[in-house]
Amino acid sequence: MSLTYTAGSLVAARGREWVVLPESASDMLVLRPLGGSEDDIAAVFPAFEDVRPAEFAAPSPTDLGDQRAAGLLRTALRIGFRSGAGPFRSLASIAVEPRAYQLVPLLMALRQRTVRLLISDDVGIGKTVEAGLIAKELLAQGEATRLAVLCSPALAEQWQGELREKFGIDAELVLASTVTRLERGLELGQSLFDKHPYTIISTDFIKSTRHREDFVRNCPGLVIVDEAHSCVAADDAGQGTASSSSNQLRYELLRRIAADADRHLLLLTATPHSGKESAFRNLLGLVRPELATLNLETPAGRAKLAEYFVARKRADVRTYLTKEDGLSDDSLAERTAFPSDRWTKDEPYKLSPAYRALLDDAIAYARDRVQAAGEQGRREARVAWWSVIALLRSMVSSPAAAAQTLKTRSESAAARTAQEADVLGAPVAADSAENDRLEGMDVAPGAAESEEAGARLLELSQRAAELIGPAEDAKLKALTKHLKSLIADGYHPIIFCRYIPTAEYLATQLEGKLGKKTKIAAVTGTLSPQQRLERIEQLAADSAEEAGDPAVRRVLIATDCLSEGVNLQHHFDAVVHYDLAWNPTRHDQREGRVDRYGQKRDQVRVITMFGEDNGIDGKVLEVLFAKHRQIKKDLGISVSVPDETASGVTDAVVEWLLLHGRQGSQESLFELDSHQESFERIEREWSSAAEREKTSQSKYAQRSIHPEEVAREVAAVRAALGGADEVRDFALEALRDLDALVRDPRDGSGDFTAQAGGAPAGLRDALAATLGGRLIEEDREIPFRTTPAVGRGEAALVRTDPAIGAIASYVLDSALDANTSGPRPARRCGVVTTDAVTIRTTLLLVRYRFHLTLPSRTGERQLVAEDARLLAYEGMPSRARWLDDEATAALLAARASANTHEQLARNQIGRALDGLPDLAGHLTEYGTRLAAELDASHRRVRKANEEIVRGLKVVPQEPADVLGVYVYLPQQPASTVSGAEA
């Protein structure tokens, strides 16, 4: 008759010990090796194989380690955990240590039966990480089995990398460039959205009718929408524009997706309002229909919204979990290293005489063209208007852009109506704050209105080409001076341009002008999103090879294809606006690429270049940017500039320029009767948007999760899993003890290298399997990096990295097997004489196993989870006085202050081991108490969802495993101490 084993119990089979998992049946046991991972799970049939109950063996008194043994063994054990027993199932299996404030959306999500959230944290706070945490947790709990991320094509690869590197979610890209390949692998009648459980989908691609319908039919149960503000339109949005049409298509798609009340939906945007209340209401309606009509002027309405909406600025999270947040002390205080300030400066330049003459002639041509078109009809007038805008913007950008524009046909020339001319011309010539489709917007616009440019335009084009170079291009000359200054001060700048020809022109002209140690690269829309990221990484790698040389600098030249979504803060710390955007929001987007969490510079530098005598830049800067900066100064936040405001101002500037020329005085520009009413309206709209934003700071402040609740969960997570510093210290110590050649530059980065040639064969084999055989065989240096994004042959200093796991497994296995040959960094026993204690103190490393019953929408899940705890007592086991957690943890830092006689060490550890039966009652009681705490934690996290916690059970599996026993002896007078340290 075969025995019945409960989930979590230990059995011996196939020459090793295993943990019984809940999936087991009476005739088949599903087992995980003790201390092993989910990848090592096996099925055993007791009728055909020898299976018997097992108990974890006690440590041997003859196998003593030094003072570091307990800490190394505990960390090795915790690194092996992939699913903790607490309410956050996924935190043990991710490669990022989230900031405490990033747990707030996760806590909000776990209190909902169907997760619906609008996450509107400020740029650079970490919305991607917050969404990734929720997605990983829902997948780990079985609340979702499939995931789709909807984002712009430019951000698809970045999303793919973030999910893979930080959360272990390997998602397939569904883009126009990949769909043919993906569909070739489908079976008859199969949807690619059904075949691939995790997908990242272009919001533009999914708009096509065929793919949209397929996606809606096979939509996953969990959807994340990035830049969600671009997927809704205001009720009063102008019809017929490219932006409103695209937004309306996306909005209809999301309405159909959101209609399934059981679908989890996360909407991400840093700008939920965009100055339009109806668009914000439509966005809320996607989260839950009733939110669209909620009265947000009442406390009850705002409280209801707070369950689904989180919006925080940097000031809200720069310091968190402090006394100011209502906590009793600052023990868990977290300070996030956002740059404290932006150093900004407007730098003017003056045109050379030849360039001024060219610009004057171009303005004269534009004036004539607009006047002539105005007599031909509305359609011709709008075509001419956008052609003139393109001409003037290219002219003040660079001679290269001007030469290209003057001989290229205008985009609007193909229009059949005036309205169509606006649809075609506006995206290329203007800088919309809401234009999410930046792809293709950096091409040089056309000014010619026929296939063959007229003789006048060709002559202007030839003159522009002759002005290339610093001799006649004063703007280029001024840029070179500013870059040299930034480089001399140690900065790595990004130069933002409006057009591709300008970026390529600068890359050519600057090569060799900024010093031999300066690396330069250009990234424009001519590259695919993946190629852009690769070029940036290559630039970083090229400069990193000479990182020891303080003169090495990086300079990136980019168009606005990089102004949204792409994170550049790790490689760059200054921004130069070479081309003045016609909407200040675009500058915010550019600067937000480097001024965000992870930026090492406390002060990011920003230089805005403008032509003080070109007739355009000065007035745009004076009116639009001055107002934008004043609002930001008054509110402490940036308010998006309404597109109508920006276009109204720039249209007036261009009209004045055409009427009066570059030399005409613009002092009275905004006093003209024809413009006064318009500008008063613009002023009112912008001020109103600013006032709404100011009010929303208090109205929509995150109040659904109190910081004290976050602090409680943060403390529990850190107690169970440890932190990033612990992983790094463990890897350094373990590799050194295992005879690897370690080089720690101590340069502040936290990175180090190791050569494993001298390490034991078992560790070398394990590292070869994860890092590559040749790397180990040739004994090359292995870079260990603090970032989770590492290349082939590198290891990330995070608990989930395979190389770190291999080191931890070897340390743990060698500690458990006293017969292991070679160095063994950790041991299960130790005796230390130290001045850190005044009475004999014993530290225990105990592993607890718990059988969890977790209810969910899809039924109960049975799990076995592990937890490692340190317990310590003073005196003899029979009369143990147990220490609190803080005093216990402090023992890990105790260092030997004197040698311990070998025989004394053996006697002391023998007495401690003999006394373990006397401690069994307390260990069982502690496990019961820990189970109760875990149960309470699960219920607390999900307290708003009675359905989810009904039936929840956390049962400790007895007996607990005593992995390590370490005795600390108080230091005696010198005359009584002799022998060797144990």
The total of beta strands comes to: 30
Q: Into which percentage range does the β-strand content fall? A: 15-25%
> Quaternary status of these chains?
single chain
Treating each run of at least 4 consecutive H or I residues as one helix, how many helices? 32
Low-confidence stretches: 665-670, 974-982
Instruction: Report the sheet with the most strands, covering strand number, pairing sense and barrel closure.
Output: 7 strands, parallel
Can you offer a commentary on this structure?
By secondary structure, the chain is an alpha/beta fold. The protein has 32 helices and 30 strands. The radius of gyration is 33 Å and the shape is elongated. 48% of the residues are buried.
